[in-house]
Design goal:
By secondary structure, the protein is α+β, with helices and mostly antiparallel strands. The protein has four domains: 2-38, no CATH class; 43-256, no CATH class; 267-365 and 590-602, no CATH class; 375-574, Aminopeptidase. Helices cover 51% and strands 15% of the residues. It has helices at residues 2-8, 27-37, 41-72, 75-78, 90-115, 119-139, 143-158, 172-196, 207-218, 230-256, 267-280, 329-343, 354-364, 390-401, 416-430, 493-505, 521-526, 534-550, 552-560, 579-589, 597-602; strands at residues 296-299, 305-312, 315-319, 323-324, 346-352, 367-378, 404-410, 454-460, 463-472, 477-485, 512-519, 565-573. Strands 1, 2, 3, 4, 5, 6, 7, 8, 9, 10, 11 and 12 form a twelve-stranded mixed β-sheet that branches.
Length: 606
């Protein structure tokens, strides 16, 4: 629409396509004007460099950091008498070695942040590169390292405008992670030094004695191992103490600064989202899951569309399509893109529809990959008759004869005591397993804030034996949120409950029901057909193998029983190299990868 309007507007005088541009222009005059408008070779080179500068600088930083750490192990080189050591005392040379090693460790840690264009990381890298340049000169060895650190410093200064991203809000968990990383590298360095130059050790100290020497040196102690040679002794202990001091300072700064604000959906944002869902919730079966309270939200300028997300491992992970009017989606996507660029996060969207993936591609330049298919059952077409439904029909008949019955109601029809009992038994049936779900889970059964949700409860001899929980999908649909049952209940109970939901759907005004999501359904289905190629069969075999832990094939087989139609879902991502970290972030968000809960509580991340 905007393009059409732009074409209809008259061009300003003198512009290309305007009235004045139609006047004949001398070729001699026109060519210099065109050449002047085109960027020169130098300008194109600078533009290309600035675009790739964060990645280039991050790579150089990591390599220089690694070289500095490896160079710190080269004690033989430092024992030579160089021209510069005639002017600079031996202790200063040892201190310079320690500074070079510590700076190398810092550069290794800063490399990832530099790749994300973090402004604070750039400032720290400038200081570290300057110190490293001086330290390498003072050491008087490996001139190449001094040149590389100087080149890095120049690159950092010339590309300073590219490093504008804000620092990630971190938790105290990050401080502990940095502590273990730095300590592990320092201990490894110390043990390697003692092993490489074991000829300078008095006697044959055991591994544990050497480990005690390294640990004590990190805090300025030592004396467990006797060392011959003052210079080697100075280099080892000064460097280890530098590692320890730097670790203490960095960890203290990270631990004492404000902890990360945990993603929370404010009551006002939740109310605004509910208003959008009331108008546009029928477009996406995943829309209601945007009301999870462990998500953040970004709004379009008009407030007519929004994107909910959670930041996991530096990935701003959204799920489903944007909420609201599709005409306002570009505004919400622009706000999302600006937020991602501001903090240097990686944008990613899980489970968006084909329309959503198309708009994300256009507005955010995100590539799309088929993630799987959502099973949707049309209530009007659902029947237990016919040979294809034989398995479900037999399961329903068997469970019904066993004396089970099912009640299907809205949450608002259940009393507080009954809701509390359902929550209790659902938690008991889950046991010690982690509560999974992010993109297709609400994770709050029986919440009074969700009165339109539907609960199907199965009873056997008056005792609850199974629970299904559905969230609204617009005004005439349901989306499966939770499926739990007593482990001692008869097989086929889930099929029985779903069949009863379909039976009562018309009374609730429901025309369509979204069941489970089948990851890589197409590969599972086509890979077992005759004529499937070796690559497809191999991919299917991998999925079946992984299904031992993640129930990929099990969910697909369960969905197929109900003869659904399939709605494709996609994952959107910036580039192929981002897929591994996006996959890890998605697995953590869905709780397939879980950090130790007690440690997170201790560190303030709950």
């Amino acid at each position: 629409m905007r393009a059409a309007v732009a074409r209809m507007r008259p061009a300003p005088p003198g512009s290309i396509g305007g009235p004045e541009s139609r006047a004949p222009v001398s070729t001699a005059v026109q060519r210099p004007a065109i050449e002047a408008a085109q960027p020169g070779r130098g300008q194109r080179f600078r533009s290309g460099y600035l675009r790739r500068a964060p990645g280039i600088i991050a790579t150089i930083s990591a390599l220089l950091g690694l070289l500095s750490l490896l160079g710190a192990l080269d004690a033989h080189e430092r024992f030579r008498v160089h021209a510069i050591t005639r002017v600079i005392p031996v202790p200063a040379s040892a201190a310079a070695t320690a500074v070079g090693a510590v700076s190398g460790l810092l550069l290794l840690r800063l490399a990832a942040a530099l790749r994300k264009r973090k402004r604070r990381a750039w400032r720290a890298a400038v200081v570290v590169a300057a110190i490293m340049t001086v330290a390498h000169v003072v050491r008087g060895v490996h001139v190449g390292e001094a040149v590389i650190s100087l080149v890095l410093l120049i690159l950092l200064v010339t590309a300073r405008l590219r490093f504008t991203a804000k620092s990630d809000p971190r938790t105290r968990w990050f401080a502990v992670l940095v502590f273990f990383q730095f300590t592990a590298i320092a201990i490894t360095y110390g043990l390697l030094m003692l092993y490489a130059y074991r000829s300078r050790l008095v006697g044959h100290p055991s591994f544990w004695t050497q480990l005690k020497e390294v640990l004590a040196s990190l805090v300025g102690g030592g004396g467990f191992v006797n060392i011959r040679g003052e210079r080697f002794d100075d280099i080892l202990h000064v460097t280890l103490f530098g590692f320890g001091l730097m670790t203490a300072v960095v960890v203290a700064l990270l631990a004492l600064r404000p902890s990360e604000p945990i993603a929370r959906l404010s009551p006002m944002d939740e109310q605004r989202l509910r208003e959008l869902l009331a108008k546009h919730g029928g477009r996406d079966s995943l829309g209601y899951f945007a009301l999870r309270r462990d998500k953040s939200v970004v709004w379009s300028p008009t407030g007519k569309a929004a994107i909910t997300y959670r930041v996991v491992q530096g990935v701003a992970l959204a799920s489903g399509d944007p909420i609201g009017d599709p005409e306002a989606w570009p505004g919400a996507m622009a706000a999302y893109r600006q937020l991602v660029e501001e903090y240097g996060w990686t944008a990613a969207v899980m489970g968006c529809s084909e329309l959503g993936a198309t708009v994300f591609k256009r507005e955010c330049d995100l590539a799309a990959l088929a993630l799987g298919d959502e099973a949707v059952v049309d209530v009007a077409d659902f029947t237990l008759e016919g040979r294809p439904m034989r398995g479900v029909r037999q399961a329903v008949t068997r469970v019904c004869r066993a004396g089970y019955e099912v009640r299907v109601r809205r949450v608002r029809e259940l009393g507080p005591e009954e809701l509390a009992e359902l929550v209790r038994v659902a938690e008991a049936w889950r046991g010690d397993a982690v509560e999974r779900g992010f993109s297709m889970a609400l994770s709050r059964l029986g919440d009074p804030a969700d009165p339109d949700c539907v609960v199907a409860t199965a009873y056997h001899d008056g005792v609850v034996a199974g629970v299904l929980h559905f969230v609204p999908w617009g005004c005439d649909g349901l989306s499966l949120d939770l499926m739990r049952r007593d482990r001692n209940a008869d097989n086929g109970l889930n099929e029985f409950m779903i069949a009863k939901v379909m039976e009562h759907a018309a009374d609730l005004g429901i025309r369509r029901v979204s069941l489970n999501f089948a990851v890589f359904r197409d590969a599972l289905e086509r890979g077992e057909r005759i004529g499937a190629g070796p690559i497809l069969r191999a991919w299917r075999a991998v999925l079946i193998f992984v299904s031992r832990w993640w129930q990929i094939e099990t969910l697909y087989r369960f969905n197929v029983k109900f003869r659904p139609y399939w709605e494709p879902r996609f994952i959107s991502f910036p580039s192929t190299r981002d897929i591994p970290r996006i996959a890890i972030a998605a697995l953590e968000a869905e709780a397939f990868i879980v950090r130790p809960h007690r440690l997170k509580q201790l560190l303030g991340r709950t």
